[in-house]
Write a structure and sequence with these properties.
Low-confidence stretches: none
Structural class: alpha+beta
Distance between the termini: 10 Å
Order of helices and strands: HEEHEHHEEHE
Number of helices: 5
Radius of gyration: 18 Å
Shape: elongated
Mean pLDDT: 87
Length: 184
Amino acid sequence: MLNCETHLLNAVHLALKTSMGLDDTKCNIEFEDSIPATAGDLYIAIHPSGAAIGPRALSSGQVFDVYEGCRVVAYQRCANVPRDRRRSVFMTALTGINAILDQIIMTVDHNVGIIVAANNSISTALPGAQGFISPLRLLGIDRSARMVTGEVYGAHPEDVTKATAVAAICRGLDFGQARRLQGR
């Protein structure tokens, strides 16, 4: 039932790379809000965001009804400056990251091409499995961008100067309601 999630994540990954002209060093599927230590100035992380049971699963024991989605988080490196000067750095980085988030929304929200790519992958890898019947929709945007420390980039927590220094600004988008119905 949940084995189609990876196909959806891969389809989102491919769509973002293609539309934004990125490679795997700037956009990839990640786990637990982590990104590679070698990530450059911009990194887009795609995370699984879980599944929700749809209404048909409750009314019939013969149908798996699942809504799936993903979380896309954009990270943009920024300078580590003293706290009293962070506002200008934050505002500059916020302008840049919001433009990136606009591109992500335009690429993923209601994009039937992502669902077609996921369904093609599903039909090849999982014969007999039903694909998605509705596209991903934008469900939420992080209330505010936040500054993150070097720990997100893999700085060891015991190295206090690197682990606690501001390294980037990030903001995430939640997409969901890609629906799958599968008979038993």
